[in-house]
Each structure stands twice: as structure tokens, then as C-alpha cells.
Amino acid sequence: MTVRIRAELPLPLRFADGWSTPARVVTFDGLADGREHLALRLGPAVRRDPLVRVHSECLTGDVLGSARCDCGPQLRESVERIADVGGYLLYLRQEGRGIGLYAKLDAYALQDDGLDTYEANVALGYGEDERDYTVAAQMLEALGERRVALLTNNPDKAGQLAALGIDVVRRVPTAVHRSASNARYLEAKVRHGHLVGVAPE
């Protein structure tokens, strides 16, 4: 089935710190996993190589402000940076690196007993990272964008998108949102290949 845009409409955004920006939300029909993923079109129109953030849903961080991860601050940073230059935020419904909300909370309990975020997923019978970016590639193609600048510290996102036919012309690093509460989490990300605090290739 060909993926197509089903609707696009204005969605003004306002964050808890008071910062706001206009946006347009885009929904899709025909995505590979049948789930309700969103694209936010932000900032000025871009002729080529828009800035794109592929952001995996994190209810605890994005909505509740959890300090255990850096997801909420990365979302806030990404929206502002994309709004400045033009591009898209793809919001993918794959909570907890793809294992789901309850399993992610179970993994938190194991992290409190000493496992890192990846080890906890494995201990629960999942892969270290279950995320698949097929729908992100489908969304970009439906939007007419096959060349992007990717806002990420995760080389796996760039690698998966490239394998799916999206030309990632450059990787743009996000800031490091480190705190006492998420230091171990960020250290685990670095051990597993994230380029946190590392200059882009």
C-alpha cells in the first residue's frame, strides 16, 4: 500500500517554559505498522535538505517531565531548532525504545537495581533497542523529502534511514541535557554508540 498524507492542519505549539511556535501537523494512511505517527512541519519552507528530528515517543519525559532521561529536553530543543531553519519533527509512537510504556517502567525498576537501560530491556526479554524507522522513511517519502539533515546523536537512526532509501546528507548533533538524575542513562547511551557530546562526522 502506498503511504499518503491523510490530513494536514495548523497546530500552534506552546511549551511549559512559555516558548511557542506555529506548526502544521501531518497524518498519514498506509504506514507499515498501522500506528498513528505524526509529522510536524515547522519553520520556513526549505527547498532541499530540511532539518529533521525523528523522535520516539516518551510519555514520561515528553509529557510528565521525567528527569530519568533526556527525551523531554531533546524534544523541546529540536522543535525550536527546526522552527528556526525549517523542517520536520517526526513523532513516532514507539515508547521505551519500542518495548512499550509498561515494559519501560518495568525496566526502570531493574535500572534502580543496577542494570543500565539496555541491560534492563534484555533482562525483560527484549532487544537492547527494538525501534524500527521504516515508518519514518515512509513519512519522509510521502512528504516529498528524500534528502535530509538529521538532528540526532544516534548513528542507528541515520543508518536505518539510509538503508531505507533516505539520503542523510549530514548528522546534526543535539545538545547534551545532562543532570544528576540522567547521568547513568547518558553514559549507557555513549557505551552503546550514541555520539553524545561528540562532534558530527
TrEMBL record:
UniProt-listed Enzyme Commission number(s): 3.5.4.25
Cofactor: how bound: Binds 1 zinc ion per subunit.
Binding site for GTP: 53-57, 74, 95-97, 117, 152, 157
InterPro entries: GTP_cyclohydro_II, RibA, RibA-like_sf
Reaction(s) this enzyme catalyzes, per UniProt: GTP + 4 H2O = 2,5-diamino-6-hydroxy-4-(5-phosphoribosylamino)-pyrimidine + formate + 2 phosphate + 3 H(+)
Keywords (A to Z) from UniProt: GTP-binding, Hydrolase, Metal-binding, Nucleotide-binding, Riboflavin biosynthesis, Zinc
Top EC class, one word: hydrolase
CDD domains hit by this protein: GTP_cyclohydro2
Cofactor(s) named in the record: Zn(2+)
Function: Catalyzes the conversion of GTP to 2,5-diamino-6-ribosylamino-4(3H)-pyrimidinone 5'-phosphate (DARP), formate and pyrophosphate.
Sequence similarity: Belongs to the GTP cyclohydrolase II family.
Active site, UniProt feature: 129, 131
Annotated ranges, domain GTP cyclohydrolase II: 22-173
Protein name: GTP cyclohydrolase-2
Alphabetized NCBIfam families for the sequence: PRK00393.1
Pathway(s) it belongs to: Cofactor biosynthesis; riboflavin biosynthesis; 5-amino-6-(D-ribitylamino)uracil from GTP: step 1/4
Pfam families: GTP_cyclohydro2 (PF00925)
GO molecular function: GTP cyclohydrolase II activity
Residues that bind Zn(2+): 58, 69, 71
